[in-house]
Specification:
Strand 2, helix 2 and strand 3 form a beta-alpha-beta unit. This protein has 70 residues and is an alpha/beta fold. It is globular, with a radius of gyration of 12 Å. Helix 1 runs parallel beside helix 2. The protein has a three-stranded parallel sheet with strand order 1-2-3, with helices on one face. The chain has one domain: Rossmann fold (3-Layer(aba) Sandwich). The chain is built from two helices and three strands; from the N terminus they run βαβαβ.
């Protein structure tokens, strides 16, 4: 039996600045390997749209969006 070191099943990652250019790409990579993502940004409208698109592709509940200013 081979373990996949990239298997993220059952894991949740928080991405700050997820409304920008790189955040959604990081989210996709995590989702591709079975994880779920919490996407945060200080522009809630941007991150909500990105999460909506990811949920359409990966299934409802795969990505959630929150307003956060760190």
């Amino acid at each position: 039996m081979q373990n996949n070191i990239f298997d993220l099943t059952g894991k949740v990652a928080m991405i700050t600045g997820a409304g920008g250019l790189l955040g959604p790409k990081h989210a996709e990579a995590i989702l591709d390997f079975g994880g779920k993502v919490i996407m945060t940004d200080h522009h809630l409208d941007r991150v909500e749209e990105k999460a909506r698109l990811l949920n359409e592709k990966y299934g409802e509940g795969s990505a959630v969006a929150y307003h956060m200013d760190v």
